[in-house]
Design a protein that fits this description.
The chain is α/β, with parallel strands linked by helices. The chain has a domain of about 220 residues: TIM Barrel (Alpha-Beta Barrel), CATH 3.20.20. It is about 30% helix and about 15% strand. It has a twelve-stranded mixed β-sheet. A hairpin with a 4-residue loop joins strand 10 and strand 11. Helix 3 packs parallel to helix 5. It is globular and about 55 Å long. The two termini are about 25 Å apart. The relative contact order is 0.17.
């Protein structure tokens, strides 16, 4: 399906003038671990397969949005690598006219087996979740074993040729303070970019509290105490969520996504498509717009683009976590897409 909109190539802009050029696509709500900051440990009702968007439906939607200025894609979940033959979706997305960058966020458990097929499919970038290098802490967070598989996956990704690999670490007070320096040393040793992400109120069990946020500023101080002063790096893209810093000794960069203590909503350019085809204009949105219904009813590209614009036009100025009237979304991270 291609866009037949008379507004073809007009950007998707909200009321604050933010042009939306990045789309995050969840391909499944299923996962092979149970990180407490993302999903419940048990009694999970996953979406039936008939409600999940097909690869063809995803590609059709991307083709329409690419006509309106979307150029960056990130594939998420759940854990996207549990979706069968994901590399086939990657093959289709990287050749969509206008799409310049396709990235994947994964927990790395299945990466050893799939790294080659993903690389061969043309995947541009990998983000791999790695909160700890301790198996004990890994099991406290994920409520499963598997750290060694993640580390093997990282190594395999490097061996097959991925040169743009980022490690994502969730920073949680009372749990991951001891993990900061070991993770930084690991990333420096292997020349990998490391990003620390503040713990956000998207856990399924709703245990999040403000005092459980291990702030990016505190993480940065720990790294500087061990490795010396970090130097700010000018961002290539003003809409990127991370603030990056370089080590003085030239051993790479480390980034901080301070979404709770230092929100970056003013430059947000992202929209999100859930696995069942609902569009969200913010990670913390309490409203969704149905895209699947349009895709399955032979709607025109113009009609689909109009719904996307409706969604983006309703976007708020900020997520408001720090406000008294903040309302948590009913869905948890695994249901939305990371």
């Amino acid at each position: 399906m291609n866009s037949d909109s008379p507004n073809q190539m007009l950007p998707i802009v909200d009321t604050l003038g933010r042009a939306h050029t990045a789309l995050r696509i969840s391909v499944t709500d299923r996962c092979n671990i149970r990180c407490f900051y993302c999903m419940p440990n048990e009694k999970i009702e996953f979406l039936p397969s008939r409600e999940i968007l097909s690869f063809e439906e995803i590609v059709s939607f991307v083709e329409i949005l690419a006509d309106h200025g979307v150029k960056k894609l990130r594939i998420t979940g759940g854990e996207p690598l549990v979706r069968s033959q994901l590399y086939k979706l990657i093959q289709k997305l990287v050749v969509v006219p206008g799409i310049a960058d396709v990235a994947l966020t994964t927990n790395g458990i299945l990466l050893t087996e799939q790294a080659q097929s993903l690389y061969d499919a043309g995947l541009h970038r990998l983000n791999i979740s790695l909160d700890t290098l301790s198996e004990q802490v890994f099991q406290r967070i994920t409520r499963r074993s598997g750290l060694e598989k993640v580390l093997q996956g990282i190594d395999q990704a490097r061996q097959v040729g991925f040169s743009n690999i980022r490690l994502n670490a969730i920073a949680m007070a009372g749990l991951t303070e001891t993990e900061v320096v070991p993770l930084a040393e690991f990333a420096r040793q292997h020349r990998l970019e490391l990003r620390f992400i503040e713990f956000m109120p998207l856990d399924a069990e709703q245990a999040w509290q403000p005092d459980k946020v291990f702030s990016g500023q505190d993480v940065k101080r720990m790294i500087e105490d061990r490795f010396g002063k970090l130097q700010p790096v000018q961002a290539d893209d003003s809409s990127q969520p991370a603030r990056n810093f370089a080590y003085d000794d030239g051993s790479g960069q480390v980034g901080f996504i301070n979404s709770v203590t230092e929100p970056f909503c003013g430059s947000c350019n992202r929209i999100r498509l859930t696995a069942e085809g609902k569009l969200r204009n913010c990670l913390f949105s309490t409203t969704e717009w149905d895209i699947r219904e349009l895709l399955r009813s032979d709607a025109t590209g113009q009609e689909i683009a109009a719904r996307v614009r409706e969604c983006v036009f309703a976007k708020k100025a900020a997520h408001g976590i720090d406000g008294q009237d903040f309302e948590r979304p009913l869905k948890a991270m695994y249901q939305i897409g990371g």
